[in-house]
Fold these 2 entries.
Entry 1:
Amino acid sequence: MHPFPFSAIVGQDEMKQAMILTAIDASIGGVLVFGDRGTGKSTAVRALAALLPPIKAIKGCPINSAKAKDVPDWAQVSTKRAQDMPTPVVDLPLGATEDRVTGALDIEKALTKGEKAFQPGLLARANRGYLYIDEVNLLEDHIVDLLLDVAQSGENVVEREGLSIRHPARFVLVGSGNPEEGELRPQLLDRFGLSVEVASPKEIDTRVEVIKRRDAFENDNAAFMLRWQAEDAAIRDRILKARKSLTKLKTPEKTLIDVAELCLALGSDGLRGELTLLKAARAYAAWRDDTALTRAHVREVAPMALRHRLRRDPLDEAGSGTRVARTVEEVLG
Amino acid sequence: MANQSWTHATLALQLLRIDPGLGGICIRARVGPVRDRLMAMVDPDARRLHPAISDEALFGGLDLSATLASGHLVQEQGLLATPGTLILAMAERATTGLAARLAVALDKGKNHTLVALDEGAEPDECLNPKLAERLAFHVDLSDCCLADLTDAVITNKNAIAPRAVTMSGDITAQIARIADNLGIDSMRAPMFAIRTARAHAALNGRGTVIVEDLEIACALTLAHRATRMPEPETGEEPPAPPPDQESQNNTEESFDLPDELLLDAVRALLPDNLLDQLTAQKARAGRGNGTGAAHKGNRRGRPLPSRAGRISDGARIDIIGTLRAAAPWQTIRRNATGRAGLQIRPADIRIKRFEEKSDRLLIFTVDASGSSALTRLAEAKGAVELLLAQAYARRDHVALVAFRGTDAELLLPPTRSLVQTKRRLAGLPGGGGTPLAAGMMTAFEQAIQATRRGLTPTIAILTDGRANIALDGKADRKQAATDAQQIARVLRAHGTDAIVIDTGNRPEPALRNLAQTMDAAYLPLPRADAERLSKSVATALGD
């Protein structure tokens, strides 16, 4: 069964916007979706795959290399032909063992042929694509550490059982979770480019619409998919167009100062916040098909780019999103 | 007349058989004939899970012993690989991790049906909310007695596929309104209600959903999720019906019945102690299930006798135990196989076990303000020292926070060094204002860090409770009290254990309130010597 189409998700505009931005510019660094149960977090992330344009990769390459010379020598790939393939969106299940994530000795070959061969793991498959972790805050600590390391270096190194393998693993992290069930370490929080908080829609009309669409999806799947897949395709085309116009987009000095001032006023740790904010604002401008970056773009994406980078204040019950919004008002007026 | 929850339970099981997409049912009942009768109606091929089930058993994996024996790769199938009914016994013990794994499996829509048997004894001991959310039904059979039971397995031959059931768009709006009125935030609940209505119509061989289906659907899926008593709609018009209402032809039964009627169906089922339950849930948010404290990041453990088990990730083989288990069989095996040498079978494998216990961290938060210094600082110091000796015996970790003047200071980060703690404590000067909120805040930060490192923190606050410095360092008695209360609420929400020791000459009512807010033990100690203080603290901490 196809996942629920992205465009058919009612409301949740910030979450959808964040996902589109990261699809436009992968270097923004992924999305973290936090929210209550039953708000459509998982639905949205699973729907993301359909939005992503295909990539070119060497046929049969375990790490989806774009060029024949990048195919690792441990992978026995005979062909040099590249083909279109959907952008990989790899699910990292909670119970995944370290072996499955990084790759390990190919036990079948070791036992049957006595060969020492490398069996690539999820990180290899996610190269040049997306790595999706549902319930990211419940992930085992040692897997989190491993992910942090790879996300930082863009390279997966396996040194065990007499194997010494390294291969590129550049992926966009997409995570979702319910903060009530456990918090995420600040180190991992920071790795996500954007973060959004979702809540159930409050208006009765929206709620009715959500239920109606879900009902149609379940009971009249063919017609429903036909209608919404077209909408998804339209979004995909717009993403492609935005990717092109992103290169031509001008960044005025004035906006750079705005970004720096905003981050300074919020006291967000490190420069990563500033960079992400700038990239997100540029992607947003490209999505809106504007020619130059303005203060309005920065203002729009500031909450999602910065809210997870603030030092947590246990007394602030309003949440960090409000704090960002307040500071944006103060600094950018 | 048959007991209503029994009727609902049997009906729910039938609905699940018709539409597995409903996720499953949570049955709250202790082991007994009532539950056994109900379980007899569940699919006999159902597979059983238990809360400590390993990932390999769930998702499948390499069968190492079979692979080694046969020389080629043997993958074993996990329980989740094929769709079917799963029974989760002792569901209240399921950890968040297991709940998340099962939730993902249910989400993927592979037609798994989960029957969760919740045997919780206390109200806050219940199925993990994450999992409960994904099960359409919840029945409580604790009130059923044997006389109520009926063998109500109706196998209606006229049953049709739920997909074939039609439903007017009006119903959707109505269910959304009812869910909203009951304070149900999640969107899954109304979706389940609609599916249930369809399934119930299908069960009775009807092509369209009628009022009866709706009533039952609301009662089965919405009642147990309600977070507030439904408000009667006094004079207020219900939201305008969707415009497409008129365009519908009247082959379907009209649905102009008021929401009130359906709400009544739900209201009849709302538990009397709904509000109590809600406060209990709120108070312990984030902790709320019966899994017990997490054993994380342990560095020690008492070895327990090894036990027969399988080689899996993280398990350590007890070699002596394994050899001992294999020894008696050697002659027989040698005769059977004709091979010489040691022969070990998978059944011989013994796995090492350790008793794990989270290390405890005691965070002493000592009031060194002027008012305290005059009266009881010396006594408090003495008490802390005695407690330290006990902590040392238990190998607890200790941290020391002092607050005086305008700010709190972490005098000693978590340590096990008795000498160091004593030295810092002895050098603790007194005097200045009482920034209680700042002290609690520093202690709370330490507690959070400790939890992350796998320790179980307990905060012990020693103060005379006359807070007069607010968090921002200003001398404002009122603001100081408000700040302290606010942090107390945060502490409670976080579920940190705490104990408040009133070192004032007279018990301070404000301090008792504060202790109540953070759900902590309160010990007034007017005129106590250090030894008595230490004794009462030890009792309060439950040694």
Note: The two ends of chain A are 48 Å apart (CA to CA).
Entry 2:
Amino acid sequence: MSGCEADKKTAFSIFDESGEICPIPAETDYFAFFSMPRKMELDEFDLESRYFKLSRKLHPDFFMNAPASKRILSLEASARLNEAYKTLKDPIQRAVYLVELESGKLQENDSTPPADMLEEILEAQEAVVDFKCCEEEEQAESLLRNLEAAKECFEAQRSGQRAALKDLGERWDRAVEAGEPPPAEVVQKLRSILGLRNYIDNILRSVQNALEMAS
Amino acid sequence: MNIIIGIDLGTTNSLVAVMKDGQPVILAPDGERNIVPSIVSFQSDRVNVGDEAQSGKTDNSRNTIFSIKRFMGRGYDDVADELRHLPFEVDPDNKHSVFVLARGRSYSPPEISALILRKLKARAEKELGHPVLRTVITVPAYFNDAQRQATKDAGRLAGLEVLRIVNEPTAASLAYGLQQRDRGVIAVYDLGGGTFDISILRVKDGIFEVLSTGGDTHLGGDDFDRALADHLIARVKEDSSIDLRTDSTVVGAVVLAAEKAKCELTDKEETEIVLENPGGVSVSWKGTLTREEAERIFLPIAERTLKPCRRALLDADLPESGVDDVVLVGGSTRMPLIRRMVSDLFGKEAHSELNPDEVVALGAAVQADILAGGRKDMLLLDVSPLSLGIETMGGAMGWIIPRNTTIPTSKREIYTTFKDHQTGVDIQVLQGERELAKDNRSLAKFRLGIDPAPAGMARIEVTFLIDANGILNVTARDLRSGKAASVEVQPSYGLTDEQVEQMLLESFEYAEEDIRQRQLLEARNEAESILTAAARALREYGKDQIGEKEFAAISTAILGAEEAMQGDDHSAIRDKIDALNDVTHSLAERMMDDVLKEALTNKKLSEAMKD
């Protein structure tokens, strides 16, 4: 166990000198798990092969005959590994995770919708509510059209953010490579875009649910 | 013994398989079928399982339980609709979970499943020649927590340690993976007797990564049979104005005829259906059914599988053309209609090289071998099929772990109190995809024990962990003291640990009952043969040769033994046998002497003749 303790502060290690699983400290970040730098841009193939390699070492399947304490460690470590992989493999989730590591959880006030979208958002929310209580078939059809339009509008909004995210991500990574903290302006802009995205995603989900109910 | 068996506990049929020389094989005694029908028939003096229980479906239908898998981990309200199709009854006193009734006793679905598992266990032990204690059991990928837990309970009741619950389509992909593909995207379309699953996997370097899964736990071959039976009943009514729907035994007989017709239409374009006094009602009806007609009836049911398929593709972020191979699993995929629909959907012919009835059990054996440490190059990374959440203020669903998350997985949440000195927090855990808590399935209620403190001061960290079986485990920690907080779990459906313990005890009593039955049978047999011998001796020797006193004593003993045989106390029978043995002792000796003398005389004669 001494090997585990020593590694806790610096380069974290999942295994001690004898190759046994160590308990994973709660504060361990997902990048440390894969021994990868805390960057926005990441080689997804490299991530996958590291994930597979670690899965082969940590998965409960390989600890069936181990003592109970080791079985629990394997279960917990696998759960953490899967969460880490899921978060890092998706560029958006990865960006949210990095931004939150750097500057705290995204808050409600990060996600205030911009004034120019307010109208569309209100319309869409109204359409969803109406659709749920609507009984007239004719009315349902026009509401359905509204919902489809709202969905398209939000999806366009979402993909429009891609270029901005990419640019901010590159600026972030350049700072990290230079050994500096990411510029405050970049962090602020990322928070605002990601917060809005969250907001749009929530609306998009209720629109999609309403559409799915209709099909 | 380190061996781990793989069991496919199916709605209609069950199988057991094991790894032999690197290949999975189904275990079955010579001359018996590989499949064991998932039927349990309670006779007056014994319980039949499998093929022996088959006839019970017609001649003992009220005490013959089948399709029990549909009731595993379900509430009464979930299945009320299906009950009208079934000839057996459920316990009216138990509305919370479903219990079935047979011969006046009420059984939980895991208890019935355990009887099937016992049969499979015995089968494996006989074939392998040693006891088997550990197993992997497959379940539909779309099974929820309660259904998985019920399956684990069944294993425990059957005296098996269930090391892993594996999803059926993923198990099938393991069996196929052994055979051919080592990379690419596979879609497994699994339509069994009572459940439908679709799973999309990516295979790479021996890692089978499930991307998404979907399905319907109440859709399968049985539904086609019932729809066709409804059609037949309508035709009979039209032709003879007799309504067959009045009696569940009659309906059961029509469903059997429908099932037979459905199977025949797999290879034939049309079939003749004969209903000759179904279930004892005096009706004679004959008609033909073409495949086209049948497919018109089947189509709406078959189409219900398409939506989950599309959603699974969407969740996997793949177009229909992104699937490299399609694998068919489950007996219902033999239907030409299904094959056409699947190949239309994915734009390619589906694989069916492995027997669709056996491939899941074969895959379970592969997974068992991985767990036993035999195979190290393959690894299955499965997902949880349904989103997990808790009920939030106002009755909304608060999402905690989204569907299609790779398992094991965990999520920590922090809870606090709203009132001063509150000593507990209730958490309702739900599974499902709907926005409102009430529309989702309640898994359990947890009560967190909290040390009294001012409102908002308590900080309890709750960890929701879904293990590799897809089963939820909850632990809690008081962040202020660092101590583990108590979590009281009340499952919404299914059995509590105490109930399982009780059933285990009862099943031991039940086993004891079995032994008593056997002892009784043996005692009766023995009494029977000694009584026959004594009666013959009395007749042959008569009162004169035996002597009046002895004759009377023997007669009394015979009467006593005959009386004891009417009862079911094996030791009372034994006592009377002993008493009869005692009084016939000298007579028996005399008879023996006579036999000996006779034998000697004969010998002398034969010797004399030889000379």
Note: Chain A has two domains: 2-89, 109-214.
